Amino acid sequence: MSEQKSFWDRNAGRYDRFMRKDRAAYEEMYTLIRPVVKAKTVLELATGTGLIAKHIVNAAAHIEATDASAEMIAEAKWDNGSAKLHFSVQDMFCLPYADKSFDVVIVSNALHIVPQPEKALAEIHRVLKEDGVLIAPTFTHAGNSFSGKVKAFFMKLAGFPLHSRWTSEGYLRFLRQNGWSVRKSVVLKASFLLTYAECVKSEGQDVIF
Fold first, then answer.
1. CATH number of the structural domain spanning residue 26
2. Which SUPFAM superfamilies match (predicted)?
């Protein structure tokens, strides 16, 4: 995680400006998420500067928003105006929370940038209640146009930690293969195609931790 952490630490101060071009897609995503988190206890992984958490916290009962980057969490904390929202530095592969602690887990635009994302999904499976919901929107770079693929190539040259390239269909298949039943999916238009996935635990399928 050290390579990834240093990249996000270096870019924490400009992250919000970088994401402004995808504001419309994120507004759609907030609209999809709010009904799911209504009056629920939520864990967000890879929160970054807290963009999603801050836009949905009024609907939720409580949100624990975490990130591996201390600089990202520092950016997130400075304008946090809600007592229902708590930010902390955590490793998504080794979370400090008890089994079945949360009603909803959100991991947005992160599974494609971490090595061994299936291990992150296993840890999410552990901390999520049996009837809980996983919300996992992710940029699906492999489904982009030629210009989008060129942009991704140059981002990687700049140090962006892109580990997985999925199409939308390939990403949903990956989730199903790792213990999740996809109950809703939507492809949103952003700088890169953004596949919103809403999942529940697959019945009768054991996940190895």
1. 3.40.50.150
2. S-adenosyl-L-methionine-dependent methyltransferases
Q: Which of 26, 1, 17 is nearest to 139 (CA)?
A: 26
Instruction: Please tell me the distance from the alpha carbon of residue 151 to that of residue 129, in angstroms, as a whole number.
Output: 38
- The maximal CA–CA distance of the chain, rounded, in angstroms, is 44
Q: The domain containing residue 46 runs over which residues?
A: 2-201
In a domain, 208, yes or no: no
Overall average pLDDT of the 90-112 stretch: 96
pLDDT digits (tens, 9 = 90+) for 123-175: 999 999 999 999 999 988 654 555 555 555 545 544 445 567 788 999 999 99
Q: State both tokens at 176.
A: 């199903």
CB-side neighbour CA atoms (13 Å) of 74:
10
Within 8 A by CB and 6+ apart from 93, the residues are: 1, 116, 119, 120, 123
User: Buried b vs exposed e over 67-90: b needs ≥16 C-beta within 10 Å?
Assistant: bbbebbbebbeeebeeeebebeeb
User: Is the pTM for the entire model greater than 0.70?
Assistant: yes
Tell the burial category of 28 from Cβ atoms under 10 Å away from its Cβ (0-12, 13-18, 19+).
Answer: middle
List phi, psi (to 5°) of 103: -75, -35
In a domain, 190, yes or no: yes
Within-domain flag for 122: yes
- Count structural domains, the chain: 1
